[in-house]
């Protein structure tokens, strides 16, 4: 399926973090991340912040700048007075990194 140069690659990753929570990320990417979907059995209040995190991660260049992206998520959580329970910003970014390096297109 690599014939079309403009075709995005889709990657998926699942991580079980200490404490038993799961995070699953699906991402479309080429040289940048064009789409991100984050799911799992963790909690985020308010839930709308998950959409903001996904939007924030879109446009990220590969390879990912993990410290910058973690700081962006943590800053958003503070700004939105949001609680991320069961996973951390680092878990989100490391799972995204795995999704964009272990493609299943």
Structural class: alpha+beta
Instruction: Report the sheet-strand fraction.
Output: 25-35%
User: How are helices and strands ordered from N to C?
Assistant: EEEEHHEH
Number of domains as seen in the coordinates: 1
Helix-residue proportion:
25-40%
Strand order of the largest sheet: 1-2-3
Mean pLDDT across every amino acid position: 91
Q: How many alpha or pi helices?
A: 3
What is the CATH level 1 assignment? Alpha Beta
CATH superfamily: CO dehydrogenase flavoprotein, C-terminal domain
What is the CA–CA distance across the termini? 8 Å
Topology overview:
Layout: E1 9-16, E2 22-29, E3 33-40, E4 43-45, H1 48-57, H2 66-79, E5 83-85, H3 89-101
Antiparallel strand pairs: 1-2, 2-3, 4-5
What does this structure look like?
It is built from 3 helices and 5 strands; from the N terminus they run ββββααβα. Helix 1 runs antiparallel to helix 2 (66-79) and helix 2 (66-79) crosses helix 3 (89-101). A 3-stranded antiparallel sheet has the order 1-2-3. A two-stranded antiparallel ribbon has the order 4-5. The N and C termini lie close together (8 Å). The radius of gyration is 14 Å and the shape is globular. The protein has one domain: 2-Layer Sandwich (Enolase-like, domain 1), CATH 3.30.390. With 105 residues, it is an alpha+beta fold.
Please give a quick description of this structure:
With 105 residues, the protein is α+β, with helices and mostly antiparallel strands.
Q: What are its keywords?
A:
two-stranded antiparallel sheet, 35% helix, Enolase-like, domain 1, alpha+beta, 105 residues, single chain
């Amino acid at each position: 399926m690599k014939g079309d140069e403009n075709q995005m690659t889709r990657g998926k990753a699942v991580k079980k973090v200490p404490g038993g929570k799961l995070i699953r990320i699906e991402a479309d990417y080429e040289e940048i991340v064009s789409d991100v979907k984050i799911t799992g059995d963790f909690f985020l209040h308010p839930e709308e912040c998950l959409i903001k995190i996904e939007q924030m991660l879109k446009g990220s260049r590969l390879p990912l700048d993990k410290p910058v992206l973690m700081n962006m998520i943590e800053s958003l959580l503070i700004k939105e007075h949001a609680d991320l329970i069961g996973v951390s910003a680092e878990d989100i970014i490391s799972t995204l990194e795995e999704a964009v390096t272990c493609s299943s297109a």
